[in-house]
Structure formats: structure tokens, C-alpha cells
Amino acid sequence: MGPANKSQTSPDTFLLMGIPGLEHLHVWIGIPFCSMYVVAVVGNMTILAVVRTEQSLHEPVFLFLCMLSVTDLVLSTSTLPRMLCLFWLGAHDIAFDACLTQMFFIHSFTAMESGFFLSMTIDRYVAVCHPLRHTTILTHTRITIMGIIVVIQGVAFFSPHPILLKQLPYCRTRIIAHTYCEFMAVVKLACLDTGTTKRYSLSMATIIGSCDAILIAISYVFILRSVFRLPSREASFKALGTCGSHVCVILVFYSTAGFSIFTHRFGKNIPAHIHIFIANIYLLVPPFLNPIVYGVRTKKIREHVLRTLVVKVV
Predict the structure, then answer these.
(1) Strand-pair category, 13-16 with 93-95
(2) What percent of the chain has pLDDT over 90?
(3) Which residue has the higher pLDDT, 6 or 122?
(4) Could you report the per-residue pLDDT of 273-301, keeping only the tens digit for each?
(5) Where is the G-protein coupled receptors family 1 profile domain (predicted)?
(6) Cα dist. 171→92, 93, 166, 177, 287 in Å?
(7) Concatenated DSSP letters for 197-225?
(8) pLDDT (tens digit, 9 = 90+) per residue, 250-278?
(9) Range from 100-114, 153-167, 227-241 carrying the lowest mean pLDDT
């Protein structure tokens, strides 16, 4: 009786189901997911390497971009390889501690992603609205402090997640109806009433996401106001093109993340496969798009990469 109770209280493993109802398509779904992961890894590693080696790129915008790239690498690597093993190899088992570790990285680095989007928006605001004081306002010390605050926020608010789940007894099924160890999917397996735990998780995600999104929106209102006041129409269109691509990435992140959060709270009738697919999108698409939008479209980074490739070819 003792071993049985122990296994129910602290399961050795969970079983990841994948995308319910789309199991027959797992192999095919894995192909675009793998392609996005490869682009995300290569693109973000390239950005880090270029900024590190090119002294002229040690500017606020590129330093924030490096922080975002590191976040993207951790976020995508904590989910994609394990997900592809599930899709292609049928590896459903995941150890309990490994599940909690994956959960911590996913939720804390998602919060950091949001924080670095806000930091980069603040940099754009200062660069557009106060161009002459850009480097004096955003000094390396202040950039470092902003980065530390974002990291501490992500770790502090989401460290309780795995700790809370570690204390819960699990006497129901060990099957997680998801492609990764999402907090809300795991907490449903507990025997006890977890209403307070669920509310804490949803509250933290909502508060952090909403505050960052509102501050980003306010910053872009001031940015657009300054852009439309530029004397040159060509300069205005160029600034709008840059801001537009940045806003698109931010909208993809916050719209899919918001959909996932509010589905847990209000969307009881939304099919599970749609919810889980959207939850995967907000973890996979931003790390895939960020190197393209912030890297390829950035002239200094693009020129450095092309110059390096030409030298190697020659």
C-alpha cells in the first residue's frame, strides 16, 4: 500500500498526449515546427555572434536585441526538441522533475520575452522622440539594470509554479493533454482543489502581459506622433515601415498569448486542439520571426553578415 500511495502522490513520469484529435498529423505538423526552430536557432545565434564581434553594434537597440535573442533560444529549445521527439518518435514519457523544469523555463522566459519587447519599445521611443539624448539616457549601466529587472521579474513571479505543483498529490491520470508541460494542463491532474493555484497563475500572466502591452501601446502612440511630424515624407515612410514590422511581431506574441490565457479562464467551449495549437504558436513564431524582423531588416546586421559571407566565399 505504501509504494502505491507514494507513486500516486509523486508520479515518476507524465505522458504528453500531443495535440488531441490531431495525433494522425503529428509527423506532418512537426515539419514546419522543426523548420521554424532551425531558423530561430540559426538566426538568433547569428545576431549574437555579429553583435559580439562588431564593435559598432554595441548600441542600446542591439544590446536589447541580444537579450531577446538569448530569451528566444532558451524558450524555443526548452520546447521544440522535446516536442519533435513526441511528434516523430512517439516519445510520450517525460519525467516529473523534467516536466517541472520545462514548465519553469517556458513560463519564466515567456515573461522575459514580454519584458524585452517592452525594453526594445522604450529604446525606440527614446531614439525617435529624443534622438539627441539617446545614448545619454540609455547608458550601458541603465540597459544592464533594465535587463536584470526583466530577468528577476520572470524568475520571481513564476518560480512558485513548479514549487506549488511539487507539493500536490496526483491520483488521477498521468496523461497531460498538451505538447509540453504547461502549468494549467498539469495542475488539472492534481487530486485537491487547485482553484487558488490556478487563479495565481492566471493573475500573474494577465498582470505582467497586460502591463507590458499597455506600456508598449502608449510608447508607440508617442512614437507615431513624432514620426508623422518628421519634415521628410521619405523619412516618415521609412520609420513607419520599421515600426510596422516590429508591431506585427509584438501583436503575434500578445494576441496568441492572450488567447491562451483567456481560453483557460473563459473559453471552456473552444476545442482542445485549437487551444493547444495556438499555445504552440506563441512559443514558436516569435523566436522564428524576431531574427527576420530585427536582424535581416536591420541594415547594419545585414551588411555585416553579407560581408562575412563574401569574405568566406572569396
Answers:
(1) antiparallel
(2) 34
(3) 122
(4) 888 888 888 888 889 988 888 777 677 77
(5) 43-294
(6) 19, 17, 14, 16, 37
(7) HHHHHHHHHHHHHHHHHHHHHHHHHHHHH
(8) 888 888 888 877 777 666 777 888 888 88
(9) 227-241
Asked if pLDDT for residue 1 goes beyond 60, the answer is no
Q: Which residues pair with 235 in a beta bridge?
A: none
Q: What is the DSSP letter of 57?
A: G
Nearest to 215 by CA among 146, 297, 289: 146
Closest CA to 101 of 128, 127, 122, 82: 82
The contacts of residue 241 (CB under 8 Å, 6+ apart) are none
CB proximity list for 278: less than 8 A, separation 6 or greater: 256, 259, 260, 263
Q: What whole-number distance in Å separates Cα of residue 47 and Cα of residue 296?
A: 9
- Dist CA 61 CA 124 (whole Å): 8
Instruction: Count other C-beta atoms under 10 Å from residue 255's C-beta.
Output: 14
Phi and psi at residue 192, to the nearest 5°: -85, 170
Q: Which residues contact 314 (CB under 8 A, 6 or more apart)?
A: none
pLDDT at 297: 66
Query: Distance between CA atoms of 12 and 284, rounded to whole angstroms?
Result: 28
pLDDT exceeds 60 at position 2: no
Using CB atoms within 10 Å of the CB of residue 229, give its burial: 0 to 12 exposed, 13 to 18 middle, 19+ buried. Answer: exposed
* Separation CA 305–CA 296 (nearest Å): 9
Half-sphere exposure of 223 (CA within 13 A, CB side): 23
- How does strand 13-16 pair with strand 175-176? parallel
Give the H or E element holding residue 94: strand 93-95
Per-residue pLDDT reduced to its tens digit, 135-166: 899 999 999 999 999 999 999 988 888 888 88
Q: What whole-number distance in Å separates Cα of residue 102 and Cα of residue 297?
A: 32
Place of cell 539624448: 133
Q: Distance (Å, rounded) from C-alpha 191 to C-alpha 188?
A: 8
